[in-house]
Amino acid sequence: MMIPAATEEQAAIVATVRDFVERDVIPVAHELEHRDEFPEAIVVGMRQLGLFGLTIAEQHGGAGLDLVTYARVVEELARGWMSLAGILNTHVITAYLIGEFGSEEQRRRFLPRMATGELRAGFSMSEAQGGSDVQAIRTRARREGDAYLVTGTKMWATNGARAQLVATLVRTSTDREPPHRQLSCLLCEKGEGFFAGRTIAKLGYKGVETTELIFEDSRQPAANLLGGEEGRGFSQMMAGIEVGRINVAARGVGVARAAFEHAIRYARERHAFGRPIAEHQAIQFKLADMATRIEAARLLTLAAAARKQTGQRSDVEAGMAKLFASEACQEVVLDAMRIFGGYGYSTEYPIERLYRDAPLLIVGEGTNEIQRLIIARGLLARDLD
Q1: Of the residues 60, 201, 236, 335, which has the fewest C-beta atoms closer than 10 A?
Q2: Residues classed as catalytic
Q3: CATH says 122-232 is which class?
């Protein structure tokens, strides 16, 4: 898949985000992350830049930009602080779902407010007893007149406390065949019977909340059934998760790039045995491998975004990008810590934060073990065609 060259407008947007990160994110990220504090002021800045409407169509108040530009923007955000890319991720997935599968009424009702960031959205599939096994979910939506009564508990909801609208995978039937036709996507609005439960403490990925979502006979309008037809939720959510995996891959590139930039700067400044450690071959080998992994991860990520933008099925490509970029990120950050030595382990330097953030990318948005299954099965299916 050819990666389209950025237009002047797209390049200017990425440059604007880069400047925003340098000016408003990097100087405060270390302190906010260690306090596990939600970055209110930064999010206001993201709204002002139009990032919440980046991929929403212009007719609905967004910028109407492509997923390749989105991936480049996510890389810049993650380079400054990975949590910012997570704040954006579930919102953009839900906007994609509504734009791609929603009714015209749903688009008019939700997308203009989502484009401005006035309405913040989340995305929820996982449950305590079923993460990767999506078809095992138990959250039930029972039709009652012009509404659904939703009961159940979701887990690992990024932005769970702040999202007012959550694209939620629910079970609307128990006897349809094949089993995935028993699942539907409801655009659930916070209110009586639907609220965030406990916040889950995490190793890294601070500053953005990860919560339970609890439904206690929550009454949701039938008009909020995505696309207006039951039984399509599984395929809809899988299409949306491809957008999420592109986000995670781009995060991996951004975090790895941050680690590399810190490492090469430190290697030039730090002296050992009478010369900068950058002049020692052992360090040069590490820097060469780090830069190569980052470039390969970036190209895979942009290629997956380009394919997804064309409307083609992209489970293999998004899975490859997410798998490679997240593993490369882990390796690059560890190499950066080795270059820093003891200072890399100190909370005074940013490497330990990057080191705590990187593992999320390996298990988030589908574990890398699941990615390998998706990639292999997808390749075998294509080979049979």
Answers
A1: 201
A2: 365
A3: mainly beta
